[in-house]
Amino acid sequence: MNDRVVEVSNLSKQFKEIKAVSNLNLNVYRGDVFGFLGPNGAGKSTTIRALLSLIRPDSGTIKILGNSLKEKRKQILSKVGAIIEKPDFYGYLTAYRNLEILARLSGKEISRNRILELLELVGLRNRAKSKVKTFSHGMKQRLGIAQALLHDPELVVLDEPTTGLDPQGVKEIRDLIIRMSREEHKTIFLSSHILSEIEIVANRMIIINKGTAVVEGEVKDLLNSDTVKVKFEVDDSVKAKKAVENTGWYNKIEAVSENKIVFMLDQNEAGLLNKHLVENNVTVNAIIPTRSLEDFFLKITSEAG
Amino acid sequence: MATKILFILFYLLIFPQSKDPDKILENVKEEFGKVEDYVVDVSIKVDIPFLKMPERKARIFYKKPDKYYIDSEGFALLPKEGMNFSLLTLLNSEHSALYEGEENINGINAALIKIIPLDENRDVLRSTLWIDASRNIILKAESYLKQAGIITIEFDYLKTSEGFYLPSQMTFIINAPRMFFSSRLNKGPFKDNSEKEDSVKTEEGKVYITYSNYKVNKGLKDDIFEKKD
Amino acid sequence: MLTLIRIELFKIFSKWRTYIGFIAVGLLISIVHLAMYLEGQSSIDRMTSDLRESFIFVGNLLNGYWISYLILNSLAVHIPFLIALVAGDLLAGEATAGTYRLLITRPVSRMQIASSKFIAGSIYTGLLILWLAIMSLGIGVLIFGSGELFTKQSEAIIILDKSDVLWRFLLAYGYAFLGMAVVCSLAFFFSSLVENAIGPIVSTMAVIIIFLIISAIDVEILRDVRPYLFTSYINQWHEFFNDPVDYAAIRDAVLILAAHIVILFGITSYIFNKKDILS
């Protein structure tokens, strides 16, 4: 059985002189929470729009749920839910009416209760009868998530789903994504600038830059294969710095502040460094590793130029 | 006015009067004067270039000497000149009559009388009447109008139950320049109405009025004629 | 497909701009009725002044039919604008609102989307013409009564019997709908090219006004162009009030207008199908 939910092969798209996407390949497997990353202008939006048939690729193939998007578009889209960038609705209609219209276009029987249920889920139940033009950005974002889930899709494409949400909202979306993945076994294709969110929820990811894939794989593998930022909280950072002066660790200092000194260390080096500091009479109050996707991302994208 | 008098004199020189035209006309007026009033149903059929209209029905009320009222369920139009009361109006106005002999009209020897109105303000320049002197009725009339060319009217008669000879059919033959029929016909308030001048080409149009169901001298009240259209 | 059409109609009639057309038509006709009530008789008298010199007029030509006929004459200018107002927004409005993304990611084909929008726009057009008919003919006859219809066709005056008028109006309104459906198609076409509804509305009116001006200028080279302009056929409904009716001329005009609709819709569907949605 083909476990691949999304298969993109040699996808290319050019807008006038600009090559937005160039021979992009990616695969998303069933049950993945797939992180889709890239700097601004990397081609993320173009790729997502191509996946959802908003854009026609110049070349390449897209298969979703085992079917060619070109040939079985309607069948595919009946099983895909999406939120693309800033969600827009028919402002002159109520939240309920907007969802009702979209429900009727989904090709499935979607009951009134289901719509109300989703509004409840995204915290908009009490605003069901309000016109969407009165909604804040965050509320529209929530409504966007509701419309993506209306027809209980197998693949959910989320493009910046937490933009404009308060921290509570961000957490709720994160929890929802995790629940959709673990309990409802949906496949999530998640594009976000909030790298920490990706790091928490995604199991696989791709980073693209200038329209092509730079790296793709399991998040944990990608992040484990490299150095780790470790913050040492000490009583005297000057003393700590002096303690490593004649060691290889000196060149690994990232930052020094009053009671903190940050090192970029290889895996398992933290313990050895700690022992060295203690032997040199530095009091270490805490060791905080930050296995940072942000650092990884910045490193990878700058390497890719 | 002077021109007219000169014309009459010249005419008299060429065509000496063998019968008294005024007497003949007086007889016609007297005969028609016996009709105090009548009501008649008419059917109007129009055969005029640039005017299409279905056959219309109307009812004409007449009371001596010149009151008339036309009633119609819908719209109808009737030629102004030549309704027999308007011919009589012509006869009752100041005019000069000239006898021109006789002509056969449908087997009847009709007296040919030319009438020139002396009132220069009238629309009629001159008229010719063919009169059946035995019954004192007009068989045919031909009028030259200032604006509208020539109108010829042919009369057919019936004898009413009351014994009067009144028209059963009048056929109007209008020979007029094209402009008469179609000039300055407005396209309506929303469109440009600048006039399109056609050439002064004459066209012939006909109107047929059929009369039936006369009720003569039944004593019509004046208030009928005070009704507005 | 029916669901899509219902949704599009719902969207159209949920917008206040849709009602501008109905209100405008209602107001305009009411003003015309008032003017006719006050001055209509003198207007007709002026129009028939020449005939009145030689004929006695019996009865009244000022009636609901005549006024409706006059109102239909103004079809070429004010109704197209009201149609473009809605039709121009059908596709461009989705782009402006950003709702293309919502719509096109649904399991419906772009052809279905385009068709349903076009049909809904045509239904709106039909309803507007129906409203025009009700207001001018329905209310007009109620206020002014019915009667003979006095019209001018190709230099001839035609007076139609009362009983011979209504069926002509029904066909004329039907034909008017076809003419306005071309306007709808044109605005719909422009709507597919841009992402703002103002452009299609202005473009549609510009095309109509330019075509009307070309038709009005009596210069030989422009006369040759006239048969190719759809505006030359919009007022062909006059033919239904001719006696006899030239059905061949009407048939030709109907075919030409229908061809415009098919071609414009075809091009629009093609464009919409190929369009990259970047909004």
The sequence of SSEs of chain B as H and E is HHEEEEEHEEEEEEHE
Strand elements of chain B, count: 12
Written as H for each helix and E for each strand, in order along the chain, the element string of chain C is: HHHEHHHHHEEHHHHH
- The backbone outline of chain C, from C-alpha atoms, is elongated
Ends of chain C: how far apart? 25 Å
Which two protein chains have the largest interface (Cβ within 8 Å of the partner's Cβ), and how many residues from each?
B-C, 36 and 34 residues
How much of the sequence lies in strands of chain B comes to over 45%
Distance between the termini of chain B: 37 Å
Q: Which strands sit side by side, in order, in the main sheet of chain B?
A: 4-3-1-12-11-10-9-8-7-6
Uncertain residue segments of chain B: 183-199
Total domain units of chain C:
1
Top CATH class of chain B: Mainly Beta
Structural topology:
The complex is a heterotrimer of chains A (305), B (229) and C (279).
Chain A: E1 4-15, E2 18-29, E3 33-37, H1 44-51, E4 59-64, E5 67-68, H2 73-77, E6 80-83, H3 95-105, H4 112-121, H5 137-149, E7 155-159, H6 167-182, E8 187-191, H7 195-201, E9 204-209, E10 212-218, H8 219-224, E11 228-234, H9 237-243, E12 253-257, E13 260-265, H10 269-279, E14 284-290, H11 293-303
Parallel strand pairs in A: 3-8, 3-9, 6-7, 7-8
Antiparallel strand pairs in A: 1-2, 1-4, 4-5, 9-10, 11-13, 11-14, 12-13
Chain B: H1 2-14, H2 21-33, E1 37-47, E2 51-52, E3 56-63, E4 67-71, E5 76-79, H3 84-92, E6 95-105, E7 108-117, E8 124-132, E9 137-145, E10 149-159, E11 165-177, H4 178-182, E12 202-216
Antiparallel strand pairs in B: 1-3, 1-12, 3-4, 6-7, 7-8, 8-9, 9-10, 10-11, 11-12
Chain C: H1 2-13, H2 16-47, H3 49-54, E1 55-58, H4 64-73, H5 75-87, H6 92-97, H7 100-104, H8 110-144, E2 149-153, E3 156-160, H9 166-191, H10 198-216, H11 220-225, H12 231-234, H13 247-274
Antiparallel strand pairs in C: 2-3
Helix pairs in contact in C: 1-8, 2-5, 2-8, 4-8, 5-8, 5-9, 5-10, 8-9, 8-13, 9-10, 9-13
